[in-house]
């Protein structure tokens, strides 16, 4: 590793750990402080924390890689995500912020589900916690895989060593500072990602001689890389089903615990509008930069007769070729930032669920605040170890791992969150069956050896589409067949609606 690169990365690691230490005293005194930052996040921290925890290593590695292989047809994912993120801010954010505070001060998503339906049996809390632990462990492992690939391809370390370095730093600051440390580091990491995703494609574009030069280079390929409706890797025109599959990524936003928990932590509902403006602006610029990196990277490699064995490393390749090692270190830090911001958020949400929804709910109902915070920290370490173990399968592509976990949460929690926030008559049984039907549909769609027109189910259409539909229909039908007669539930719903009207 070049000494300048080492300096850049060293400074990055020190800043992250410093934030963890800074947050230690402020957020570790009680469970609400450790798990939710005392509901005190500013709009800009909320926005960039939500964005950075969302746009993981896949935005700097998976998405540019997809663009490199398939051309502009991959941009449909970005379109779907942008729409989904905006609607999430518009529909979910204000309602969830008010509801979680009025419904017995819910600190986790399973906590919200249990309080929303006054579930004294703990069945809803238990099932949702199991879903979180399963899918988030898978999701976290995708980040660790990205870290392993980065250290192997860029720093000459072994893939396995990369896993431990990536996970180790994240665990350190998450362990120390909890939610506040995660959110502040996410903010810093979001800023780094933003600058990097502007800088790299702009420099590549200048090197190619502008847009005309890039188009000339891309024209040397047989595939039509500049057509939104043609998969350049196969030369086939995209089907309506294919476009729906890519757009449907946007549906996942409504059910991602590590994103929507940011809405629970913002200091005021009135701040959500500002957070939305900042968050969506950040997202549009960043995701456009990621797409441009992939397609312009292909043109650059073509011009210089290079060879990319792993398209998902195109951002790394451009960073090392085009920039001084000091800047290159900063850009590689952007990948680490994307990876770590997501891992830390997922670790904390999983830890919160294990602590509040398992340990406290079933094992230690009278546990002290200090004991619960300690349990949360132990949970962070345990989940990280499992994620590292899963990441040893180095053949897994980052985008595949992310897409499976994204679909799982989107289908299991998305309809449940949306409908529970707007429909008073939704029942507890509908919530349980809706969640289970969504998660099971996704798993069947991924793993069942069933084909349609010679294609496996998840190749034919992205699993979130059937999962989201099945869950939504189940919730509506079961609620209509039953009755919501719990006065506490209906009264809380009315209080939330009244509170929201007063804010308008």
TrEMBL record:
Cellular compartments annotated: Cell inner membrane; Cell membrane
Biological processes, Gene Ontology terms: proline transport
Primary subcellular site in the record, as a coarse category: membrane
An annotated Gene Ontology molecular function: L-proline transmembrane transporter activity
Pfam families from the UniProt entry: SSF
PROSITE patterns reported in the protein's UniProt record: NA_SOLUT_SYMP_1 (PS00456), NA_SOLUT_SYMP_3 (PS50283)
Gene3D superfamilies documented for this protein: Sodium/glucose cotransporter
Gene Ontology cellular component list: plasma membrane
Transmembrane keyword on record: yes
TM regions (residue ranges): 6-24, 75-92, 123-141, 161-182, 194-219, 239-261, 282-302, 314-339, 372-392, 404-423, 430-448, 460-481
Described function: Catalyzes the sodium-dependent uptake of extracellular L-proline.
Homology family: Belongs to the sodium:solute symporter (SSF) (TC 2.A.21) family.
Protein name: Sodium/proline symporter
Organism for this UniProt entry: Paraglaciecola arctica BSs20135
Gene: putP
């Amino acid at each position: 590793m070049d000494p300048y690169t080492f300096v850049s990365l060293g400074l990055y690691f020190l800043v992250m750990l410093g934030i963890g230490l800074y947050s230690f005293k402020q957020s570790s005194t009680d469970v609400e402080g450790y798990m939710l930052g005392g509901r005190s996040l500013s709009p800009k921290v909320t926005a960039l924390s939500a964005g950075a925890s969302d746009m993981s290593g896949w935005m700097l590695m998976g998405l540019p890689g997809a663009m490199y292989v398939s051309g502009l047809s991959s941009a449909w994912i970005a379109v779907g995500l942008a729409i989904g993120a905006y609607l999430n801010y518009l529909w979910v954010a204000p309602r969830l912020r008010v509801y979680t505070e009025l419904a017995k001060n819910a600190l986790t998503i399973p906590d919200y589900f249990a309080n929303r339906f006054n579930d004294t049996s703990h069945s809803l809390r238990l099932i949702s916690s199991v879903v979180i632990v399963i899918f988030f462990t898978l999701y976290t492992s995708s980040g660790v895989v990205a870290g392993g690939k980065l250290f192997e391809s860029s720093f000459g370390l072994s893939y396995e060593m990369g896993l431990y370095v990536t996970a180790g730093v994240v665990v350190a600051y998450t362990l120390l500072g909890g939610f506040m440390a995660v959110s502040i580091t996410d903010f810093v990491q979001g800023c780094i990602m933003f600058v990097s995703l502007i800088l790299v494609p702009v420099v590549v574009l200048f090197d190619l001689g502008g847009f005309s030069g890039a188009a000339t280079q891309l024209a040397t390929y047989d595939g039509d890389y500049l057509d939104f409706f043609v998969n350049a890797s196969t030369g086939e025109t995209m089907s309506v089903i294919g476009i729906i599959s890519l757009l449907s990524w946007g549906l996942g936003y409504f059910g991602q615990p590590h994103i929507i928990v940011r809405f629970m932590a913002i200091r005021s509902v009135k701040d959500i509008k500002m957070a939305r403006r900042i968050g969506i602006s950040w997202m549009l610029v960043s995701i456009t930069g990621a797409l441009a990196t992939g397609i312009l990277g292909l043109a650059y490699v073509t011009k210089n007769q290079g060879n990319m064995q792993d398209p998902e490393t195109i951002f790394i390749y451009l960073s090392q070729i085009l920039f001084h090692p000091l800047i290159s270190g900063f850009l590689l830090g952007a990948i680490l930032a994307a990876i770590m911001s997501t891992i830390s958020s997922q670790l904390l949400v999983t830890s919160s669920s294990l602590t509040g929804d398992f340990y406290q709910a079933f094992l230690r109902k009278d546990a002290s605040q200090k004991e619960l915070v300690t349990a949360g920290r132990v949970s962070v370490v345990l989940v990280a170890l499992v994620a590292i173990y899963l990441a040893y399968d180095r053949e897994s592509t980052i985008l595949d791992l992310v897409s499976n976990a994204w679909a799982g949460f989107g289908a299991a929690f998305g309809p449940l969150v949306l409908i529970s926030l707007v429909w008073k008559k939704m029942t507890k049984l509908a919530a349980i069956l809706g969640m289970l039907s969504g998660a099971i549909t996704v798993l069947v769609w991924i793993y069942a050896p069933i084909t349609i027109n010679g294609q496996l189910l998840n190749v034919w259409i992205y699993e979130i589409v059937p999962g989201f539909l099945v869950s939504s229909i189940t919730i509506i039908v079961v609620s209509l067949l039953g009755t919501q007669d719990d006065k506490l539930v209906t009264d809380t719903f009315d209080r939330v609606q009244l509170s929201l009207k007063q804010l308008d």
